[in-house]
Amino acid sequence: MPINIPRNLPAGEILRQEKIFIMEEDRAKTQQIRPLNILVCNLMPEKEKTEIQLLRLLGNTPLQTNVTFLNTATYASKNVSKSHLDSFYKTFDEIRHRRFDGMIITGAPVERMEFEDVLYWEEITKIMDWAKVNVTSNMYICWGAQAALYHHFGIGKFELPKKCSGIYSHVITDLTVDLVRGFSDEYVAPHSRHTSVSFEEVRNHSDLELLSYSEDVGPFIIQSKDSRHIMITGHLEYDATTLADEYHRDVEKGEPVEVPAHYFPNDDPSQMPKNTWRAHSHLLFYNWLNYYVYQETPFDWHYVDENIEYHI
Length: 312
Fold this sequence. Notes:
By secondary structure, this protein is of the alpha/beta class. The chain is built from 10 helices and 12 strands. Strands 1, 2, 3, 4, 5, 6, 7, 8, 9, 10, 11 and 12 form a 12-stranded mixed sheet that branches. It is globular. The two termini are 36 Å apart. The model has no long low-confidence stretch (mean pLDDT 90).
C-alpha cells in the first residue's frame, strides 16, 4: 500500500525514482480505506533529507499511511526555506485538535545543551504530553529519545568524552518482543551523538524494557512496558552517506572529529561507505507500524472517551 504525502513535496520525486509506492493526498482522498495517520515532528536541521529517509521507511509496508510534518513554532530552522515549511509543515496549534495513530520525534543538534535551555523545550514537552492521550504509539530518535527518557521517565543524559560516530554492533535482549521480531541475533546500526544515557538507569527503571544494546555505545532500543513509547538512541534511518556528510562537514569547520568507526572501507574517508543496516531499518519501522500502531490504534477515534482528551 502507498504512503500518502503532501502534493508537490520535493521528496516525492526521489521516492518515485526509488520505486517507493507513494500517493499524493488528492488521490488518497478517493480511496475507501482507513489509512494510518502518522505525525512526524522533524527537528533535524536538513529537513528535506530527513523527510526522504523517514518516508522511505514508512512507505515500505502493506499499510496505507498519511504523513503530517510538524515544525516548532518557537524556533525557525535556518537550513530549510520558509516556503518549504509554510507549504508542507504544520505547527502544534494547527494539529492539537486531531488524533494520530503514530508519532515520530526526530533527533536534533542540541544534545550538548541542557534540556531546559533548548529554545523549543517547553513546546516539545507540550507535544509529548498531548501525545500521551492523542497518539497510539510514539517513536523517538536520538535526541528525541533522550528527551522522552528525561521527560517521561526521569532519566538524564551525560556528555561523552568524544563524539560517538560510526557503525556499531548490537545484540537483542528478547527476540520474542514484537518490535524486534525477525531481527538477527547481532546486527549493526549507525550512531552520531555527543551524549548517552545510563545502562543502569534504563535497566533498573520499572516502566522500561531494554530491547537492544551495544557493548561499545550503550542502550539502543528501549520501549516502555505499555509499548506506547519507543526510544531509539541511534539513527537506523540514516542513508549510506549521512555519516560521511557529517564527518566532512565537521572537518571543514575545523572541529576535532575522528573518522566514524567501522564505516569507511579501510577507514579511508575518500572511499564510498556501504549501507550495512538497511534491512533492519525497514524491519524496525515495519514492526512498529504493524504491531504497535495498526494492531493497537482505534479504527475510529470518535469512539474514544472524549473525557480523557488532553487540553493545554
